[in-house]
Amino acid sequence: MINDQQQTDIKYIGAALDLAQKGVGLVSPNPLVGCVIVDDGGNVVGEGTYEREGVTHAEIIALQKAGERARGATAYVSLEPHAHHGKTPPCTDALVNAGIKRVVAPIEDPNPLVSGKGFAQLRERGVEVTTGVLAEEAAKINEKFICWHRRHRPFVHLKLATSMDGRLAIDASVSTLLSGPKAIERVHELRHEHDAILIGGNTAVVDDPSLTDRSGRERLRPLTRVILDNRLRLPAESKLATTAREIPTLVYSNCLDLESVDRLSDLGVVVVPIERGARNLRGVLADLCAREVQSVLVEGGSAVAGAFLDARLVDKVTMILSPVLIGGPTAPVAVGGKGAAALGDILRLEGVTCTEHGTDIEITGYPQDIA
Questions:
Q1: Beta carbons of 38 and 76 less than 8 angstroms apart
Q2: Model confidence over 30-42: pLDDT tens digits?
Q3: Residues 227, 255 contacting (CB under 8 angstroms)
Q4: What DSSP state is assigned to residue 338?
Q5: What pLDDT is attached to residue 86?
């Protein structure tokens, strides 16, 4: 049974998590952090959100607002406060110096510079520390940051828009818009959450997409566009190529045709040579990680989706189903690749949610077996 203190902790950690989410699109590759300071009388005396990479942290903002009222208060923080000197001084020092008597934080920071050290330092200096409150919810909010540190690669979110019979288009050579306006709004919300968006060369040629974040929400860095294109087929007149000087555009390829490379490079496209080319998904992710890309939304076609799933490199799957049926032998299926050879090889999802967007249905879940 939950006691009064536990109910209070859940309430204010929930508030800290809500504050943390205000930083979506603004703080990557750093974590989303929110802080609420509550005095002994149960009054909120300070709140803060980390909203800009490299600037004042949520705890410091909340402490500044609280002032002297922070003395003897409890700080509810969505993630373990850091105890090292990075771009900013340690938040643990600020909490202790302000007279905070108790810190409640759901989970450790996965960054090895921080992990466990912040909690340990607070305890050593006489601050009571409570962890584990709404831990699952806190981990989900920072799932991209956690993956980036623990798996040493970007978080990969596969998004597919399909008909009810699992087809992507009428034909592989025909661009087909299946989703309704509400679902399209949702797609741009997903794009806003990520640092990069990735497609294959065929999708780039057939659909001629812009691959931009049109959510209307502020973001610190532009959405990086990534194309896997071993044949360097991206047309010079395509939307991607003609806007490459304004929007970061990377093409991963093992093509050594200097004329093709120069053609794209002259337009501002960054051609990244990679061993085994676009098929080397781990190499692509490693290079993106080095570029401080924390998360990738994969919107590629059947082959790209199948390749990522076969490699067990998908952390999250979202399928948007439109109430249409296509059928026929030429309509491409949502997922290609090798697929499952036996029932035991089937990739199962957990934590599945279903949401309606107009006439379309979003199904999102987390693969159980990932690398």
A1: yes
A2: 999 999 999 999 9
A3: no
A4: S
A5: 66
**In Å, how far from its chain's centre is CA 278?**
22
| Sheet (strand 102-105) strand order | 44-49, 34-38, 74-77, 102-105, 128-131
Q: What is the pLDDT of residues 316-364, one digit of tens each?
A: 999 999 999 999 888 989 899 998 888 888 889 999 999 999 999 999 9
C-alpha dist (Å) from residue 137 to 9, 210, 241, 334: 14, 33, 40, 30
**C-beta atoms surrounding 279 within 10 Å:** 15
What distances in angstroms separate CA 340 from CA 289, 301, 310, 332, one per listed residue? 29, 18, 8, 18
Distance CA 34, CA 49 (A): 5
pLDDT at 54: 58
Q: Helix H segments across the chain?
A: 4-20, 58-66, 91-97, 117-124, 135-141, 143-150, 181-193, 201-207, 239-242, 258-265, 281-290, 302-310
Q: 211: closest CA among 192, 225, 194?
A: 225
Residues marked active site are found at 59
Residue 85: pLDDT band by 50, 70, 90 thresholds? low
Query: At residue 126, what is the residue type?
Result: G
Alpha-carbon torsion (300, 301, 302, 303), positive or negative: negative
Please, which residues have CB within 8 angstroms of residue 97's CB and are 6 or more apart in sequence? none
